[in-house]
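Format notes (please read before filing issues)

Several people have asked whether sequences and structure tokens are stored in separate files. They are not. Every record keeps both together, in the order shown below: the sequence lines, then the token lines. Line labels are part of the format and must not be stripped during preprocessing.
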Amino acid sequence: MKLRVLLGLGLALLAGACGGEKRPAQRVVVIGADGLEWRVLRPLLQQGKCPNLRALMERGSFGNLRTMIPTLSPILWTTIATGKPPEEHGILGFTDENLQQYTSTMRKVRALWNIADRCELESSVHGWWNTWPVEELRGHMVAGSSSSELAEANWKPALIPGAERQVWPLELEPRVMAMAQEHGTLAQVQALATTRIFGRFAPGELGEVEQELIRQTLWSVQADMTYAAIAEELLRTDPGDLNMVYFGGTDVISHRFWRYYEPQAFRWPADPQLESRMAGPKAQVLLARAIDNYYEWFDELLGRLLQAAGDDATVLVISDHGFHAHSTDKPNPLFITGHHLDGPAGVFIAAGPGIVQRGDVAAFLERNELADCGHILSIAPTVLALLGLPRGADMADEAFVAVLDERARKSALLAPVPTHDTGFRRARATEVPAGMKTDFVKRFQQLGYIGSDGQDANLPPQQQPPR
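Then the structure lines:
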């Protein structure tokens, strides 16, 4: 009798946590673009570029998304996924006090995909920060793996063939790994780099500085290409109720090529020795387009994901912070020339069922008028509202109702549950295998940039750069 009462109480609590109203959005797609910046995007939209982002803006809502400091990717993207500040979700940086990389086993609270699973909804998660090792859930997860061994060059999530527990369910792993081997090959990455992002250079045009900056960026080109292809296929064949895809390259290229993008902001003193290590004027003209080119390529990837998701999907495109020029008076040892240390606002764009039309695209393009679209802490409760689920009362913010239609606002006003974390069990603790670290380093070292001179830039790594 007592067991029956406890079971009934548990089911009642679960029912309360899972709402009961018809969902405002039947399928939600959250696209995370690390470091996406309005000051880069606006001129491209004025030129008629990035048509997929513009189409979302015209039929939905857009504006600034406020962030928090420190602007470290694993902290911010876990905050976005949980609705909790770092001191509560437990991911406090890239590595802990013992210099061990943070993994999914260290997150203390439920993420959106765990809440969806608890409410018998399916999720499809691709490349999100701190999702390795994968968690067991309804739907599928392709982990965002990382390695502290690459902190010296470019530490962003990637999919590494051969590493364990990167795909859930386990029976999906052969299919995912086959797609990973088909997309993002060295030949494809190098072809994209030369034809779309950086350009072709004659022998001697690139300096050793730019060769290393390009090599550090190619890791994220490969990761973005791979995750986009896998997410597109699974969105088309087996979409979840909640779908989340992360792209890191928009951040990486902005850190490394802002000086070329906005040269007028930099006043570096004349230094013949430094100039001998850097590209000449002709190459710098090509590199000035690198950030724009990456944004345009990201827009193409987004377009394919939108087509796979279908016209009835509710889509959110978000960035964790913006960008601006950095080290403008003199170069730093890593030649990082774009940064976000002071927490510039990121991008919020949303459209589809549950989202109102809010924002004037013409006014934005003409007068740079941008509305406030909440805080990164409001993303999780906003997504829950779109899924017809109440927020947790212990979440740090509420849904940003200004972008929601009447039915989604009603969902956002559901009485919050005390917490979604009751009974949460962390992913099984796992040590990072030595072989996984080796595979990361080996794969990174293979990504030498091959320009028209056919030379592979394999320079020694430097100290850890900011992410």
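For reference, the curators noted about this record: The longest strand covers residues 28-33. The chain has one domain: 19-446.
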